[in-house]
Amino acid sequence: MPDSFQIKDKDLMGRIGVIETKSGRLETPVFLPVIDPVEQVGDKAILPANEIEKMGFKAIITNAYLIKKTYGESAVERGVKGIIGFSGIVMTDSGAYQHMVYGSVDVGNREIVEFQERLGSDIAVILDIPTKESSSYSEALYSVEETLRRAREVIDIVSRSETLWVLPIQGGAYLDLVRRSAREAREFDGYSIYAIGSPVTFLQSYRYSKIIDMIITAKEELLPSYPVHLFGAGHPMILPFAIALGIDMFDSASYMLYAKDNRYITEYGTERVEELEVFPCSCPVCSKYSPKDLLEMDRRERVGLIARHNLYMIDKEVRRVKTYIREGRLWDLLIERSRSHPSLLDAMNRIVMSSDKIEKYSPYSKGRRGLFIYDSTSKYKPQMIRTMERLSRYLSYVVEKRIPGMKTVAMIPGDGSIKPFSSSPIYARALGDLSRESLLEEVFVFFYTPYFGAIPEDLEETYPFSQHEAPESVEPSLIRDLGEEIYRLVTRIRGSVPRIIIYYSKEIPWSVEVASILRQTMISPRDWGIVLREI
Ligand SMILES: [Zn+2]
What we know:
Layout: E1 5-11, E2 14-21, E3 24-28, E4 30-35, H1 49-54, E5 59-63, H2 64-71, H3 74-84, E6 89-93, H4 96-102, H5 109-119, E7 123-125, H6 137-153, H7 155-159, E8 164-169, H8 175-185, E9 193-196, H9 200-204, H10 208-221, E10 228-230, H11 239-244, E11 249-252, H12 254-260, E12 263-266, E13 269-272, H13 284-288, H14 291-296, H15 299-327, H16 330-338, H17 342-353, H18 355-361, E14 371-372, H19 382-402, E15 408-413, H20 425-437, E16 443-449, E17 453-456, E18 468-469, H21 476-493, E19 499-504, H22 509-521, E20 530-534
Parallel strand pairs: 4-5, 4-11, 5-6, 6-7, 7-8, 8-9, 9-10, 10-11, 14-18, 15-16, 15-19, 19-20
Antiparallel strand pairs: 1-2, 2-3, 12-13, 16-17
Zinc ion binds near residues 281, 283, 309 and 312.
């Protein structure tokens, strides 16, 4: 069904949206816990689906292939929701994962697609052929072509269905195949959701940068108006990165698999319960029990409680990412998270390298709190890239059209704690100084700052020059860059204006350093009509 997805808010390539299913609306980004249709069913189940529903999860995913094998045709009568005991939105997978693990499944594509329809799935997946991490190029190519063939094979069912059908993109680590898979998938009518095929093995081995590459490649080809699911992503560590690149849905069994192994999920990794003195969390489980309490329980009860905590952690991270999207600060969250694990730093580097692509999709100015700048990595923020492009175009115009005819160019340090810059005492003093020697109409003023370089005075109130927060302590590399940038600007304009005054002030320590860099760089400033003046 086309038009089943509406985008409500955006930041970077991430979005908050709503998927319309036949059982109701689902807000994205959303995490779907994997429910084992055999183990997690009934009174004796460790953490049954109805308990997960009570925790607030609106949707889950379960496996239609296992349901068919276990319950046979009787499953159709009870329906998937009856079998697993969940009244919310249910997505089913087709057995592709079992195919990947066991090498084959004894069910056909058309057969399992029809079965999922009759089972009453809200969202369902065709029987795709996942590309494995270990696949050779020709195996990966086969998985791409065979998945597309199967997508075509059931197009008659899919296109008249009320179920939302998912078309997985294959190719794995072979990005040319990922691109081809996505490009051809885009041409199919009838599918409502795309999925990035099983990178589970990448996720298990923390090869996040591989996944980032796959997502970026697929998203470049897919239409942005369709939701994209990422199979097997169930750790809070990867969620902000995947969401920032435009992933809308996730599923994973990790909450349970980790719990069975006494592993406790945090934002930054996993901890063994045995190694914890206290739980660094205040979810209902962690506020009630200590690690010692859990270790003294019988295994079933313990696994259930750790699994619950793990789900709370994943849910909390999804909520956090949504908040950052609404505030337009998703980049800041990525930077923060990228410092928590080397593999996330790799992932961040990939994103930084692709920031020009991301920039195209990002809203320019949003959020009540303006642009947050932390350090030199903030230069790669999409809003910064766009700001610097616009600024550089405007600077060329200023250099060619505005400065010729002026008597003086003044460069005044922009005090980051006072905005607009022209309301600072340094500006007032500089203007007083200038008015003693020239008519102010014949003075062109730039503000200079470590994060934006030289800003013509008439731009100071445009976004984000007056709407940003930056630290007062500035990295030495940024100060050096600023010194060089001012030097370059001075060499561009010195032929067209008789006098250039560069002000600096002890109240803004980095401006003193910039002045000293300029003094070292310029051989004889006086000859150029350049004055460095403390104010
Ligand atoms: Zn907890």
